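User: For my dataset I need records formatted as: sequence, then structure tokens, nothing else. Please produce one.
Assistant:
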Amino acid sequence: MKISKLTITIIFLTAVFLQSCQTPEKKAINNDLDRDALQMLNESRFEEAYDLSSRSLLRNNNNSQALAVNVISAYVLALLQFRKDVDSLKQSNPISMISEINRIFENADKNLKQIKNNLNILELDKNFKFRFTPGNLKIDLNGNGMIDPKEEVLTAIVKDRDGNDIDPRRPEFAFDHSDVLWAQSYISLHLAYISILSSVDYANFMFFVTGFNSGERKNEITLKIKSRESLIDGYNYLNQMLDYSDQTRISVLAETDDEFEWLPNLSQKSCPLPMQMSQKIFNNWEVYTGLIRDLLEGKTVLNFNGLSSGKGNAEDLKAEGGINIKRLFTEPKDAVLNIEQIKLKAAAVDSDKNLDPFLEEVFGTCYEYNKIPSPIVRKLVEMNRETDKNGAASANRIKYFLWII
């Protein structure tokens, strides 16, 4: 049956009309739920915040305030659940541990995807504004049932611009659309991690580590890819992370308001964070996302030539080849690693400083020669040198930069 454009238009306008005709009583209920949900979040009562915001979203799934509370509370709950699940592995034997690891990754993937879905809806609200004080959050990360002194100030500001200790500050932020894009990039990176970790079969690895299978450790370990689909998902999420990172940078630079900014541009001065943005940070932001994208697209390879072995200040390590990151994702192969050979070639690096045989043994055909080396490792080394030279203030700038991209 063919539906006319007129029919579709009538259906759409009817839906909009019904939404606008929401009774004052229903609007009041939503307002109460949103207010109570935010209060629960500010009191670090994450389950109540999640439940109340979920109820509000059942009435209106485009409610940006409810979406924001739901995303934050769901993320903290997912983080705490992941920590609890990982701790429970200590009581598992190697056989049950494998199934437990798979269950942990499945749960994490499910929780993160739900957060991602809500961020997708929130992203549609270009006028999004959400005033919130992250420093109020108190998260029991170690799971001991109480908030320890370090957890008390986990989300507070405890350093000034020069890296000196200050009394904890808990300023309010006005989160906006640019910050939603930043959160999208952040969650995409989490999903990439989980997808990549989920792609590996841990059976052989666990048996190798514990000697459970034969009563003694073997000389070879097989890293088997159990899900190529998960590996490709991880690759796609990494690309999505870069896309959202670029969108965040462009959006932040285009902002003209100046209200308690989470990520300020050069003209925005109302930023409670001790680190202000500079043109150099924005330039580096664009450069580094480009360098990572080139690696993911296989235009360059990850090369370690000129690094220091750590046994002196000289940049003494040599490498002509590089790791083709794209092929690791798109042409995955099960790897059989001979531990004795790896030990021998690692020992040889100490004498001749040549990384190529060692890295070729580990990465196989994904270690390629005659490819364009990425300068990203060299740039990160230069960043580290700047930290050593300029002290805490420089270190803080670098941490801030690596955090925002």
